[in-house]
Design a protein that fits this description.
Structural class: alpha/beta
Radius of gyration: 33 Å
Largest sheet: 8 strands, mixed
Distance between the termini: 37 Å
Helix content: 40-55%
Number of strands: 28
């Protein structure tokens, strides 16, 4: 049975102070939610330290020179060793507030709001509040010299709220209600009734206060809780403010500034005093109060608060307000307001917003907007589009194809677990099989195909879509009459039936070709930029933006692609989605039962397209995947796509948790250290169990799972030391495995690590076979198309007879001379082009000289010849590289080598006797890395060795390891699941490591030591070994002595990755 978190929590009681506090930490939201470059915890260290408060303008600058720029585009760019970053943090951009003036209402602060201050007191009739929020940050990092220089500019949003007094009629009405209540027979009231007794729907409610068993009357003060946002830039503002105050309506104004403390004096105080009747002499008091407020203001805490809002359902409330103000059907709106609403929804894709928040936003759009506007808005954000697609599919669920009822009664020809059997024999039309690592996904798919066939389903009506060609070929090998292919292949075949003249090309070549064939065309310029954004550093939301652009310019897009006769995989899926009702299925593809394997690795757009295809065809859908194993985010895969299906209620879920690969010891380490904290597992809640009844003991766990942690302050130093660390820590372990006749696989995070490991293993074990599973990779060559786009006029100026020679010479001379390998590749490519095209070009020269063709025709032909060579060159190289990678992978696996080296991506779906994982321990580890290491851990069948490194003082992986051992040594609550079948949440002890650092910083004589300690957790040694140079490190004893007096959050970050 797997160890549960309950057992880990119990074990913590028997562990040391350091172990207990570091073992199970609450995942706290920090400013790193927005960017890993926002270091610090508001204490003494890091970029966001305690000294960062709203200050004054830098010397020589003021409001006029710095402006009030709306920081709304998250971006990063580097030039001359200087990196500039824009990091928006506000949930609503400045432009949305400005478009909502007069319509948007904002919540009024209260005494519990630490980022607001009340300027008035009980002697004033009106309440005046001021709030301050960080709207965004502009970072500049200069690496041009040895001393790295960082500069941080912060944009703030200051809001002033004017709140009217309690209305007299409300106070009188309250008194009348009280007298009426007293006149009633109070004896008939049940004081224990938890439901309140409503006296007046609008103004008063009666409820039972269990604390003192007294009856409390409450007023309706909703008119004091939200304020209408007014613009101060229009001439009517003063009169508007007075009219609203006279009508006892709350109102607010907003101001954006880089130095709110300095700009406070220039806020419209005169208009505020005039509207409220407050004496002008109070201005100095107000400003003094604000000065104190800003001096005590924590920028770190405010950014953290924003991160919490972004990562919770609260953001849905903010977006609801924007929708209501800008595009609600209850009032008219213009194109600019609609455009701003569109941007606000796209803006959300920059950060990780919960699916539950997206569902609420989707509901708000459909509730507040007319159908046409709602249809437009949901397409502006991929998560909203997923909600819309699932909603449409849900409405047609009962009309979809189902497996025959006999599938439940026909004997299954394979040995399946009860969990697998339930999924295979289901007749539901939409089935989601949540299969954990090693849970037999392929077995379930093959069994499903077999059962459908036994029920009389024609194999040609079954289509299986896989993520890799190897998986698709395996299905065909075992089921020759079933249609099996990758999703990319199906979409490509579909696309080519409609656009047979298009050739697959790279995005950059297409963008260059648009500039070549459609120069100075505004559409082509925009289209090219949208394409380039797909591969840029600021690619968040780029697929959504490209889809919306194509939808708005569909005919122009098709015409442009027909002109250049090119396409890409990215364009194929978008056009297949946009033209789904026009594009016929490829010949021979008759889909009645659709099965999709490894669904989590498909892009969000592929998800949406396939759901629309199911809706269109009315076929059944059987999908298998594990969101916790999503690895290909760099190809636009996103675990949220599968999470959206899991949480939608549209699919019938079946969960596979029995692992047929690994022993329970390995699975316990993966479950406790990674799977329990992977966000993508929040809906499936998978907890892996081994297919074995062998009990797990503390000794068996230590025998089969080992952890070594090296403490470094620089990643570069770890990489250079990696060969030595392999010899020091893993040599005996490897030898033990080899002596048993077992294989050892080394899984690295980066290719550089993998290459270093391979070289060292070949030195350590010269008589053993060492193979690499690392795939070759390459970038598409776009030298030809880029040269034509920017320098073709130089070629057209020469005589056609010399054009080819001049082109080749100029191309090579303008190549990447600072990169010898790239320069050599370019020269080779140019030579290949000339060899292949010389005779054809010479024939065109003769035709030109004979007057058969014009000069313009000659150069058009030459240009097309050059572009075609680039396209064919990239396609051929891609095909050869892919084939070579697949063949080498199969060949290497068949050799049964002793030692295997790979990145984690290279072994997805594979398994090995023993696995060594090169692991970077981080307190703020990204979700992507958690999933990647989870895949790495679960490749091991017999044993797992984790060689960890990190910059944190106390490695969490060591703490988790020790706590697992403690839970096995002291099994206080056993390993059984509760009777209700649930794994209940545990109480976590949380300690702030920054508080530890602040308290012990004087105890470290030399913080610049590179390797400070090594923590080794091996059999018979449960606690970290003492560091060799105790004078230069923070020892566990020092930390424990300090922790005893602390009780705050323990998710510290010691470095910026």
């Amino acid at each position: 049975m797997p160890i549960l978190l309950d057992n880990i929590d119990e074990a913590a009681k028997f562990s040391t102070a350091v172990e207990a506090t570091k073992a199970r930490t609450i995942k706290a939201v920090t400013p790193k939610y927005f960017s890993s470059h926002l270091t610090g915890r508001g204490k003494k260290q890091g970029l966001l330290n305690s000294s960062v408060i709203p200050g004054r303008y830098p010397m020589g600058l003021d409001r006029l020179s710095m402006g009030t720029t709306d920081l709304r585009y998250k971006m990063s760019q580097t030039s001359n060793a200087v990196t500039s970053r824009i990091i928006p943090t506000g949930t609503i951009v400045k432009r949305a507030y400005e478009q909502g003036y007069g319509r948007m209402t904002v919540p009024v602060p209260d005494d519990m709001d630490q980022f607001a201050v009340r300027l008035t007191d009980d002697t004033d009739t009106f309440d005046v509040w001021v709030s301050c929020s960080v709207q965004g940050l502009a970072m500049r990092e200069d690496n041009s010299s040895k001393a790295k220089v960082k500069d941080l500019q912060i944009s703030y949003r200051t809001m002033i709220y004017v709140v009217p007094p309690k209305q007299t009629e409300d106070i009188n009405d309250l008194s009348d209600q009280r007298l009426t209540l007293l006149a009633n027979d109070l004896a008939t009231i049940d004081h224990d009734d938890p439901d309140f007794i409503e006296v007046d729907d609008d103004d008063i409610a009666l409820f039972d206060d269990e604390a003192d068993d007294t009856l409390i009357l409450t007023e309706d003060e909703s008119y004091r809780e939200r304020a209408t946002l007014l613009s101060t830039t229009i001439s009517t503002f003063p009169n508007k403010a007075v009219r609203m105050s006279n009508a006892n309506l709350a109102w607010a104004i907003a101001d954006w500034s880089y130095a709110p403390a300095e700009d406070a004096e220039n806020l419209p105080w005169d208009e505020i005093f005039r509207a409220t009747g407050i004496n002008h002499s109070r201005k100095r008091d107000f400003l003094d109060t604000l000065a104190t407020f800003y001096a005590e203001y924590s920028v770190y805490d405010n950014i953290t608060d924003s991160a919490q809002r972004w990562s919770s359902d609260d953001i849905a409330d903010d977006i609801h307000d924007v929708i209501d103000a800008l595009v609600s059907k209850k009032h008219s709106y213009d194109d600019e307001q609609l455009a701003q609403m569109v941007y606000e929804l796209r803006y959300m894709e920059q950060y990780n917003v919960p699916l539950s928040a997206y569902r609420k936003i989707y509901e708000s759009i459909n509730m507040l907007c007319d159908p046409q506007t709602a249809s437009l808005l949901v397409k502006q954000n991929m998560n909203l589009l997923m909600n819309d697609t699932l909603n449409a599919l849900s409405g047609k669920r009962d009309q979809l194809e189902r497996a025959p009822e006999t599938i439940k009664t026909i004997p299954v020809q394979r040995q399946l677990s009860p969990q697998q059997l339930a999924a295979v024999c289901s007749t539901e039309p939409l089935i989601l099989t949540q299969a954990g690592a090693g849970a037999g996904k392929s077995t379930v798919i093959l069994a499903r195909i077999q059962q459908l066939g036994l029920c009389g389903v024609n194999p040609s009506d079954i289509t299986v879509l896989s993520f890799t060609n190897a998986a698709a070929d395996n299905i065909i090998k075992k089921n020759p009459n079933v249609r099996s292919m990758t999703i990319a292949r199906m979409i490509h075949d579909l696309y080519m039936t409609y656009f047979p003249t298009h050739e697959l090309s790279s995005v950059e070549t297409i963008a260059n070709s648009l500039g070549i064939y459609m120069p100075k065309d505004p559409f082509a310029f925009q289209f090219a930029n949208k394409l380039r954004n797909l591969e840029g550093r600021n690619s968040e939301g780029a697929h959504t933006a490209l889809n919306n652009f194509i939808e708005s310019h569909l005919e122009q897009t098709v015409d442009a692609l027909n002109l250049i006769k090119q396409t890409s995989l990215e364009l194929e899926i978008i056009l297949a989605y946009q033209m789904i009702d026009k594009m016929p299925l490829p010949a021979g593809l008759n889909i009645r039962h659709l099965i999709i394997d490894e669904v989590q690795d498909n892009s969000v757009f592929e998800f949406i397209y396939l759901l629309r295809l199911v809706n269109k065809l009315g076929c059944s859908l059987f999908i298998v995947g594990d969101s916790s194993q999503t690895l290909y985010e760099f190809r636009s895969a996103n675990p949220k796509a599968l999470n959206a299906l899991e949480s939608s209620g549209v699919f019938t879920p079946y969960k596979l948790e029995t692992n047929y690969r690994s022993n329970q010891e390995v699975l316990d380490m993966a479950n406790i250290h990674l799977l329990s904290e992977i966000e993508a597992n929040q809906f499936a809640q998978i907890r892996l169990r081994a297919n074995s009844l062998t009990p797990v003991t503390a000794q068996s766990f230590q025998d089969k799972v080992r952890v070594v942690h090296e403490h470094y302050t620089a990643d570069r130093k770890f990489l250079s030391d990696l060969p030595v660390l392999l010899s020091k820590h893993t040599h005996s372990y490897i030898q033990e495995c080899l002596n048993r006749g077992e294989q050892v696989a080394f899984l690295a995070f980066t290719r550089r690590e993998a290459f270093a490991i391979q070289k060292r293993l070949e030195e350590l074990f010269p008589g053993r076979s060492v193979i690499s599973m690392i795939s070759d990779r390459r970038r598409a060559s776009t030298f030809f198309s880029s040269f034509i786009e920017h320098h073709w006029s130089d070629i057209e100026a020469v005589d056609p007879a010399n054009a080819s020679f001049v082109f080749t010479k100029e191309l090579v001379s303008r190549g990447p001379g600072n990169n010898p390998n790239a320069q050599a590749a370019l020269a080779k490519m140019a030579s290949e082009w000339w060899t292949a095209s010389a005779l054809t070009i010479q024939g065109w020269v003769y035709e030109y000289q004979a007057g058969i063709i014009t000069k313009e025709v000659f150069f058009d032909r030459l240009k097309k010849c050059i572009l075609d060579h680039e396209i064919r060159h990239n396609s051929i190289r891609d095909a050869l590289m892919h084939r070579n990678n697949e063949e080498r992978k199969i060949r290497n696996l068949e050799t049964k080598a002793d030692l295997i080296v790979s990145t984690v991506h290279g072994v997805k779906g594979l398994e090995f006797d023993n696995v060594v994982v090169i692991y970077k321990d981080q307190s703020d580890m990204s979700e992507e890395k958690k999933r990647l290491y989870y895949v790495a851990f679960t490749r091991a069948k017999n044993s797992l060795f984790v060689l960890s490194h990190g910059t944190t003082l106390s490695a969490r992986i060591v703490s988790d390891y020790n706590l697992i051992v403690d839970s096995l040594t002291n099994p206080t609550s056993g390993n059984d699941v509760d009777d209700d079948g649930e794994n209940h949440a545990v109480d976590a002890i949380v300690v702030d490591e920054d508080d530890v650092l602040d308290a012990i910083e004087d105890a470290i004589p030399d913080q610049n030591a590179t390797v400070q300690s090594a923590q080794v957790v091996q059999p018979t040694q449960l606690m970290p070994i003492a560091p060799t140079d105790a004078a230069n490190v923070v020892t566990p004893d020092i930390i424990a002595s300090v922790i005893n007096g602390l009780s705050s959050e323990a998710d510290a970050t010691m470095s910026d990755e």
